[in-house]
Amino acid sequence: MARYQLKEAFYTLQGEGARSGRAAVFCRFAGCNLWSGRERDRASAVCTFCDTDFRGTDGVGGGRFLSAETLADHLEELWEAGADSGSASGSSSDSASGSGVVVGSGLDSDSVPGFDSRSGAGSRSSTGYRYLVCTGGEPLLQLDSAAIEALHRRGFEIAVETNGTRPAPPGIDWVCVSPKGRAPLVLTSGDELKLVFPQPEAPPERYSGLAFDQFFLQPMDGPELAANTEQALAYCRAYPQWRLSLQLHKLLGIP
Ligand SMILES: C[S@@+](CC[C@H](N)C(=O)[O-])C[C@H]1O[C@@H](n2cnc3c(N)ncnc32)[C@H](O)[C@@H]1O
Ligand SMILES: Nc1nc2[nH]cc(C(=O)O)c2c(=O)[nH]1
Ligand code: SF4
Ligand SMILES: [Mg+2]
């Protein structure tokens, strides 16, 4: 039995929340405790609006890893390939509708005017700024101390995107919790709370007193995205503690 199972892993820009725009390797762990990932189970799941295919290990950069070291080696290779090519490439499992302006996913820095890819290592060093976003599925079903230590040894800053139903192992550098209205919230502190909005069972007021540094509303993608975006915008205008998180990667057509 493999110790870690990844649906996919890819180099892109963080598209959501406080750190949107930052280059990162995304590590999408397979499986979730709030939905099987099968469409036929969606309506009866605890979390019903998921925009992601996290079943199996068959995506680009996915697979089964027998040890923390082999997992970390794999993710390090993706960082080096991504930071060296300057491209946002790979596969995304986001499956909900995207209605934004698609500018393509093959941005090549060599063709960007004014960007000299051969210039000094300082601006595009593959050893500096290493950033890993662990997501899924639910990453805290698999991410453990052994993986965190192996990744830290390779110089990664480690972020997680979690539904907050499981405790986080020590050592994670950035915790983003995205509560789901019908699931018990165990992680009640962290760096950012990013609430998919609206959720009838999860009004923002329920979370506004928790110990997070930043609070975001992220419009629920799907058939009502436009209306949900209007509603989130109105809420952020009325309650300035909350900021709007648009899913930048969907607007840009990148993974
Ligand atoms: C696919 S989840 C994986 C991580 C973790 N299971 C969680 O829910 O936070 C990644 C992020 O996408 C958000 N998300 C999922 N479905 C969405 C949707 N339909 N619209 C907007 N955000 C969504 C989640 O709330 C979470 O912040
Ligand atoms: N670019 C990009 N940013 C993201 N931020 C959170 C994501 C996720 O699926 O967890 C995600 C994703 O899938 N792609
Ligand atoms: S908790 Fe996260 S991964 Fe699981 S179904 Fe919901 S949004 Fe998807
Ligand atoms: Mg996503």
TrEMBL record:
<feature type="binding site">
    <location>
        <begin position="13"/>
        <end position="15"/>
    </location>
    <ligand>
        <name>substrate</name>
    </ligand>
</feature>
<protein>
    <recommendedName>
        <fullName>7-carboxy-7-deazaguanine synthase</fullName>
        <ecNumber>4.3.99.3</ecNumber>
    </recommendedName>
</protein>
<keyword id="KW-0460">Magnesium</keyword>
<feature type="binding site">
    <location>
        <position position="52"/>
    </location>
    <ligand>
        <name>Mg(2+)</name>
    </ligand>
</feature>
<comment type="similarity">
    <text>Belongs to the radical SAM superfamily. 7-carboxy-7-deazaguanine synthase family.</text>
</comment>
<feature type="region of interest" description="Disordered">
    <location>
        <begin position="83"/>
        <end position="125"/>
    </location>
</feature>
<dbReference type="GO" id="GO:0000287">
    <property type="term" value="F:magnesium ion binding"/>
</dbReference>
<feature type="binding site">
    <location>
        <begin position="49"/>
        <end position="51"/>
    </location>
    <ligand>
        <name>S-adenosyl-L-methionine</name>
    </ligand>
</feature>
<dbReference type="GO" id="GO:0051539">
    <property type="term" value="F:4 iron, 4 sulfur cluster binding"/>
</dbReference>
<feature type="binding site">
    <location>
        <position position="255"/>
    </location>
    <ligand>
        <name>substrate</name>
    </ligand>
</feature>
<dbReference type="GO" id="GO:0008616">
    <property type="term" value="P:tRNA queuosine(34) biosynthetic process"/>
</dbReference>
<comment type="pathway">
    <text>Purine metabolism; 7-cyano-7-deazaguanine biosynthesis.</text>
</comment>
<feature type="binding site">
    <location>
        <position position="32"/>
    </location>
    <ligand>
        <name>[4Fe-4S] cluster</name>
    </ligand>
</feature>
<dbReference type="GO" id="GO:0016840">
    <property type="term" value="F:carbon-nitrogen lyase activity"/>
</dbReference>
<feature type="binding site">
    <location>
        <begin position="218"/>
        <end position="221"/>
    </location>
    <ligand>
        <name>S-adenosyl-L-methionine</name>
    </ligand>
</feature>
<keyword id="KW-0456">Lyase</keyword>
<keyword id="KW-0004">4Fe-4S</keyword>
<dbReference type="InterPro" id="IPR030977">
    <property type="entry name" value="QueE_Cx14CxxC"/>
</dbReference>
<feature type="binding site">
    <location>
        <position position="137"/>
    </location>
    <ligand>
        <name>S-adenosyl-L-methionine</name>
    </ligand>
</feature>
<feature type="binding site">
    <location>
        <position position="50"/>
    </location>
    <ligand>
        <name>[4Fe-4S] cluster</name>
    </ligand>
</feature>
<feature type="binding site">
    <location>
        <begin position="178"/>
        <end position="180"/>
    </location>
    <ligand>
        <name>S-adenosyl-L-methionine</name>
    </ligand>
</feature>
<dbReference type="GO" id="GO:1904047">
    <property type="term" value="F:S-adenosyl-L-methionine binding"/>
</dbReference>
<keyword id="KW-0411">Iron-sulfur</keyword>
<keyword id="KW-0671">Queuosine biosynthesis</keyword>
<keyword id="KW-0479">Metal-binding</keyword>
<feature type="binding site">
    <location>
        <position position="28"/>
    </location>
    <ligand>
        <name>substrate</name>
    </ligand>
</feature>
<keyword id="KW-0949">S-adenosyl-L-methionine</keyword>
<comment type="function">
    <text>Catalyzes the complex heterocyclic radical-mediated conversion of 6-carboxy-5,6,7,8-tetrahydropterin (CPH4) to 7-carboxy-7-deazaguanine (CDG), a step common to the biosynthetic pathways of all 7-deazapurine-containing compounds.</text>
</comment>
<comment type="subunit">
    <text>Homodimer.</text>
</comment>
<feature type="binding site">
    <location>
        <position position="47"/>
    </location>
    <ligand>
        <name>[4Fe-4S] cluster</name>
    </ligand>
</feature>
<dbReference type="InterPro" id="IPR007197">
    <property type="entry name" value="rSAM"/>
</dbReference>
<dbReference type="InterPro" id="IPR013785">
    <property type="entry name" value="Aldolase_TIM"/>
</dbReference>
<feature type="binding site">
    <location>
        <position position="135"/>
    </location>
    <ligand>
        <name>substrate</name>
    </ligand>
</feature>
<dbReference type="InterPro" id="IPR024924">
    <property type="entry name" value="7-CO-7-deazaguanine_synth-like"/>
</dbReference>
<keyword id="KW-0408">Iron</keyword>
